[in-house]
Amino acid sequence: MDTAPASDRPDDQRQHHRPPYDEVQASPEFGELRTAHRSFAFPLTIAFVSWYLLYVLLSNYAGGFMGTKLVGNINVALVFGLAQFLTTFLIAWWYSRHAAAKLDPRAEAIKARLGDSS
Amino acid sequence: MSNYLLAAESASDNRPLIITLFSVFVVATLAITVWAGRQTKDANDFYAGGRQFSGFQNGLAISGDYMSAASFLGIAGAIALSGYDGFLYSIGFLVAWLVALLLVAEPLRNSGRYTMGDVLAYRMRQRPVRTAAGVSTIVVSIFYLLAQMAGAGVLVSLLLGITSEAGKILIVVLVGVVMMLYVTIGGMKGTTWVQMVKAVLLIAGTLLITFLVLLKFNFNVSDLLGEAAKNSGMGSAFLEPGLKYGVNATSKLDFLSLGIALVLGTAGLPHILIRFYTVPTAQAARKSVNWAIGIIGGFYLMTIALGFGAAALLDHDAIIASNKSGNTAAPLLAEEIGGGADSTGGAILLAVISAVAFATILAVVAGLTLASSSSFAHDLYANVIRKGQATQQEEIRAARWATVGIGTVAVVLGVFARDLNVAGLVALAFAVAASANLPTILYSLFWKRFTTQGALWSIYGGLISSVFLVLFSPVVSGKPTSMFPDVDFHWFPLENPGLISIPLGFLLGWLGTIVSKEEPDKGKYAELEVRSLTGHGAH
C-alpha cells in the first residue's frame, strides 16, 4: 500500500475499527446474496449482448431477410429494432423486480448485522 | 417548397428570437447554478451534489448528461439521410444501459465515493491505479468534450446564420465560459439541475415535433415510412440496413466494431458513472438507471419519427445543402412542420428547437468538465500528489482550478478543431471507455484474483491501443472525410478501434494478473465485495 485508502482519510467520520468483512464474505448468507446476483446478472448480460450482436450481424450480413416487408412499409429490420427496445425495457423491469425480491432483503440483513456505519 | 435557401436565410431572419431563447436559457440556468453554489459547502456537495437527489431526478439528469447534440441532431440527421442505418446507432446507445444497470451502477454507488478511480483503485496500490484512472478519465472526457465544443461552434453558427470565423470562435468561447461557470460555481448540484432542465426541454421539444409529424400522417407509421422512402429517392432500400454501413466488407466490420463499442462503452464513461454518486442508496441508483432507460428509450423512439419525418417532408438535397452530415435536419423539420420558412409558426418552432439544441450542448459539456476536473482533483491531486493529505477545501479548490484549466484546453482545442471533422470522436470516446475502463471495473468488482498489474495493463493497454489505432485510421487521415484530408498515413482500415482494442483491454487485464508476482489483497477484496453488494459503509 502506497497510501491509506480514501475511506481512512482524516476528514472521514467513520469509526476506525474495521468491520469483520472477511468473515462476512465467507458466510453462507453472503454466499447466497452473491449467487443471487451473479446467477441472474451474468447469464442475462451474456444473453442480451448476444441478442444485440445477432441484430447487428443480421443488419450487416442478412440484408435480404431484414428487408422483408411484413405489413405495409413495416419490414423485419424495423420490427427487429423495435424488439431491441422492448427487450431492453423488459430486462430492466425484470432485473429490478429480481433485485427488490432477492437482493435487497439479503443485503439489508447482512448490513444490519454488520452495524450500519453510514 | 423553397427549401433550398432555407437554412442560412431564415436563420438570419429568426436570429433575434433564437438569441432571445438562448439568452433566457443561459440566464435561467446560471441563476440555478448560483443558487446551487450557495448550498455547496463541502466536497460531498461539490463532487456528488450532496447525494440527496431522488432516483427520478437523477434519471432525468443522466438522460440530460447522455443525450448529446450528437444523439439529438446527429441521429435525426443520419436517419434523414441514410434511413434505417441512422437508427442502428440509437439501439446500441440504449441497450448499453443494461450493462450499467445489471453490473455497474449499484456496486459503484455502494463502494465508491466521488470518482471512477475510487472503485478501480479500491483493492489496488493506490498511486499507480489512481494515476491510470485519472489519465483515462481525462482522455475520454476530453475526446468527448472536443467533439461537443467543435460541434457547438458549427451548429450554433449554422442556427444563427453566422458565417464569419470570428463569430464561430466567439461561440466556442462563449460555450466554454458558460460551462466553466456552471461547474466552478454550482459543482455537481448546479450541473445536475442544468441537466434536468435540459432533459425536460429536450423531451418536450422532441415530443412536440414528433406529435406534429405523426399528425401530418394521421398517425399511420407505415405511410410515414413509405413517404420517406419515396421522397429520399432510394425506395425501399431506405428502410433497410446497409445504405451507410453496408457499402463493402470493411464498412460492415466497422459497423460491428462501432456496435460493440457503443454497447460496452456507456458503463465505462466517467461522466455517467459519477452521476450514480448523487443519490443516497444503491436502490436509488437502480431507480435512476431505470428512469434513464425509459426516458432515453422514449427519446430514441421519437428520433425515428423525427428522422423519417425529415426524410418525408423535406427536400433531400436541401438537408445536405444545409449541412452535409444532416445535423440541421431536425431544426429544418421543425420549421417546415410549423408552417414553413415564411410563417410565424415555422419561425417559432425553429427557434425553440435551436434553443433546445443549444441547451443540450451546454448540459453535456458541463457534465464532461465536471467529470474530468473531479478526477483531476480527487484522483491525481488529493490521492497521488498529496498522498491523501489534502483537506476538503484544498480538494475543492483544486477541482475549481482544474475546471478552469480543462475548460480552457477544451476552448482552445475547440477553436482549432472547429473546421475539422470531429464526429468520430464521440464513438472513439465510447471505444476508449469500453477498452480501458470497463474491463478494470468488471474485474475489480467480480474477480478475486485481479491485481494492480492487471489493472494497469488493462487501463493503459486499452487506452493506448484504441488511441493508437484511431491515429492511423481513416478518422485522422487519408479520406476526404478525415480530420486531415490532405495527408495520408492511415493503415488501420476501420474508423472505430473497438473490435480490436476492447478484447485487448480484457485480455491484458487477465494476462497482467496471471503473470504478476504480487498476491491479490484478499482482505481488501472481501471489503470491496461485501460493501459493493450490501451497501455497508456507503458514503
From TrEMBL, chain A:
It holds the Pfam family DUF485. The chain crosses the membrane at residues 40-58, 70-95. Keywords: Membrane, Transmembrane, Transmembrane helix. Residues 1-25 are annotated as: Disordered. The keyword Membrane applies. InterPro entries: DUF485. The keyword Ribosomal protein does not apply. This is Putative integral membrane protein (DUF485). The lineage of its organism: Bacteria, Bacillati, Actinomycetota, Actinomycetes, Kitasatosporales.
UniProtKB/TrEMBL annotation, chain B:
This is Putative sodium:solute symporter family protein. Belongs to the sodium:solute symporter (SSF) (TC 2.A.21) family. GO terms for cellular component: plasma membrane. It comes from Streptomyces himastatinicus ATCC 53653. Its main location: membrane. NCBIfam families: sss (TIGR00813). It is a multi-pass membrane protein. The keyword Transport applies. The lineage of its organism: Bacteria, Bacillati, Actinomycetota, Actinomycetes, Kitasatosporales.
